[in-house]
Design goal:
The complex is a heterodimer of chains A (189) and B (381).
Chain A: H1 34-44, E1 48-52, E2 59-60, E3 66-67, E4 72-73, E5 79-82, E6 85-94, E7 108-115, E8 122-125, E9 140-145, E10 168-173
Antiparallel strand pairs in A: 1-2, 1-5, 3-4, 6-7, 6-9, 7-8, 9-10
Chain B: E1 6-12, H1 24-39, E2 48-53, H2 65-68, E3 79-82, H3 88-101, E4 107-115, H4 121-125, H5 134-150, H6 155-168, H7 183-188, E5 191-193, E6 196-197, E7 206-214, H8 216-221, E8 227-236, H9 250-263, H10 268-271, E9 274-276, H11 284-291, H12 300-305, H13 322-325, H14 329-345, E10 358-365, E11 370-377
Parallel strand pairs in B: 2-3, 2-4, 9-10
Antiparallel strand pairs in B: 1-7, 1-8, 4-7, 5-6, 8-11, 10-11
Helix pairs in contact in B: 3-14
The chains are: A mainly beta (189), B alpha/beta (381).
Chain lengths: 189, 381
């Protein structure tokens, strides 16, 4: 057996490649479903749209083209525009852990925001304009849009884990009074 | 009626930061050989193999089941892989049990593992992108919501962190061995994902776990006392939907209701002698006590506070030290079932709960959206 740390073997042959550096770059073309394609078009123009389920009236942002609760399709005629203001429903402050590709070095906010008019939350948004120790559930926030020329579709994905950060930099407090727990406790995610 | 199913063999590797001395197949064989030794069987006696691990991206080895068949003695036999994120070890045991209960196979080997040192789970969870939040970052907002909802004092999380690490000192397979851990040390450890501190979080481990399951005849012939699988239940739900309660997910509530009903349990807190719950972050102990109706809403932390979940308490939780002390991710769910089996077999050694005859094993995964539960008993009926 060789020693994995030194690569020494009984024959004296150096085995320096027991640890393999294998960096792979993959380029994906992500085909967006029509509902998300439309969402992106409107987002780049500074508007946030969703679909209202014809059965239960829940509003999904981004629109999914279906209501997963009622299992019914939704389409363009179910489109509604929602506000770019909402409620901070849940959050944590992340201490970045180093890994290949990690560029974050300072603690950052990972928050969920329920936009006014939506029944879903935007997940993984940054909150700015307030010290981390003053963050709280129920805080009223509004979108900080990137200038139109700087907006891109970089973070948009149909596979989950995507976000709107390539268009909306962060959310910041509006200064309005906090929302009562009834308005956020069922929207922690 | 379904065939009775017994756990007749349990094997674990020692969980540790990195196992450079063995390959991935070698790591699995270590657990498998121990489980077979316990059952006094050989690979030739096994009819089928079921394996489970967390996402391939964690080690960067895609479809490891393709190269493990020979090492697991599965050439020419059915081998299948289960995949339910962090709950996978639990689901793997349940799928193996179902193969026996449905009389498809008589002796099934279930194996689960993670060799975290060969990859980077943080990279895997982040999908290779910057700004990854890790599992702790995903669960932290729900833990905050639990604390706010239940009005629990913050030392509850520290208490669980201390209890599980002290239990781990009695388990020879546990990874973390922090003999001098105190509430003060946990409190002073760095804040990683507010409100979760470093010592309230699980480690990254290499390790594997295996169990051998047989039909009733196999259970009755077993050289050592078997653990009988009295009931199993699995549930899943969408990771995100309007009105979802990630603090007490409905799938978890229904999963435990199902497993209690099947096992004839009406008062889980009194009828279950010991529980191995999937607690990767300290607050999940009170959260699952409530999430599986062992305690009423807002009451889970009070059971912790009263010391009931300690080794000598009325409802011991994670005498093995739990996921907080050893986390080879894919294996962690199976270890809950393996440890529950050891308890009702009376073979848990220094961390044996006196007189344990009914045990609850639980695993959860994904965005707290996959659940695998089992009730294991000393007696077949």
């Amino acid at each position: 057996m060789s020693d994995a740390t030194t690569g020494a073997t009984t024959t004296g042959t150096a085995k320096q490649h027991l640890v393999m550096e294998h960096l792979v770059s993959l380029t994906y073309r992500d085909a967006l479903p029509p509902s998300l394609d439309r969402f992106v078009d409107r987002l780049l123009e500074g508007h946030i749209v969703g679909h209202r389920c014809p059965s239960c009236s829940r509003v999904y942002v981004p629109p999914r083209g279906y209501c997963p609760m009622c299992v019914v399709p939704t389409a363009a005629d179910h489109e509604v525009e929602v506000s770019d203001r909402g409620i901070l429903t849940g959050f944590t402050v992340i201490t970045p852990i180093a890994y290949y590709g990690q560029q974050e070095t300072e603690p950052f906010v990972h928050a969920s925001v329920r936009l006014d008019g939506a029944d879903t939350t935007l997940v993984g948004v940054e909150i700015t304009g307030v010290p981390h120790d003053e963050l709280r559930m129920g805080l009223r926030v509004k979108a900080v849009w990137k200038p139109e020329s700087e907006r891109s579709t970089e973070g948009i994905s149909s596979r989950g884990w995507g976000g709107v950060s390539s268009v909306i930099d962060s959310f910041e407090p509006t200064g309005e009074p906090d929302a009562p727990p009834d308005e956020y406790r069922d929207h922690v995610f | 009626m379904a065939e009775r199913c017994a756990v007749v063999g349990v094997g674990q590797t020692h969980f540790t930061k990195r196992r450079d001395d063995v390959s991935m197949p070698g790591l699995l064989r270590e657990a498998v050989d121990r489980a077979l030794d316990d059952a006094e069987l050989t690979l030739a006696d096994i009819d089928a193999v079921v394996i489970g691990k967390a996402p391939d991206a964690f080690e960067g080895i895609v479809q490891p089941e393709l190269f493990l068949a020979d090492a697991l003695g599965a050439a020419g036999k059915p081998l299948m892989r289960v995949h339910t994120a962090g709950s996978v070890g639990g689901s793997t045991v349940l799928v193996a049990a179902h193969l026996v209960q449905s009389r498809i196979h008589r002796r099934v080997l279930a194996v689960a593992w993670e060799k975290q040192s060969e990859g980077n789970a943080q990279w895997g969870l982040a999908g290779g992108r910057s700004g990854g939040i890790g599992a702790g970052g995903a669960f932290a907002p729900w833990i905050r919501a639990y604390i706010q909802r239940s009005q629990a004092p913050e030392y509850i999380g520290w208490m669980v962190a201390v209890k599980d690490r002290l239990n781990a000192l009695k388990n020879p397979y546990a990874h973390l061995r922090i003999a001098d851990i105190t509430l003060e040390k946990v409190k002073e450890s760095p804040m990683l994902w507010d409100p979760l501190r470093f010592l309230e979080s699980c480690p990254s481990s290499d390790g594997a776990c295996a169990v051998v399951l047989t039909d009733e005849a196999g259970g009755r012939r077993a050289p050592r006392p078997p653990a009988w699988i009295a009931a199993t239940a699995m549930r899943s739900e969408l990771g995100q939907f309007p009105g979802r309660d990630p603090v007490r997910p409905q799938a978890g509530v229904e999963c435990s209701a199902d497993v209690y009903r099947l096992a004839g349990i009406t008062d889980p807190r009194r009828q279950i002698d010991v529980a191995e719950l999937y607690v990767p972050f300290s607050w999940y102990e009170p959260m699952w006590l409530e999430g599986h109706d062992i305690a009423g809403p807002g009451e889970g932390w009070k059971i912790v506070d009263a010391g009931e979940t300690e080794m000598g308490g009325a409802f011991p939780v994670n005498p093995s030290g739990g996921v907080l002390s050893s986390n080879a991710i894919g294996a962690s769910g199976m270890v809950r079932f393996a440890e529950a089996a050891l308890q009702v077999r009376g073979l848990a050694g220094e961390h044996q709960v006196d007189g344990a005859r009914t045990a609850l094993a639980q695993a959860y995964g994904g965005a707290a959206q996959y659940f695998a539960l089992g009730i294991l008993r000393s007696d077949p009926d």
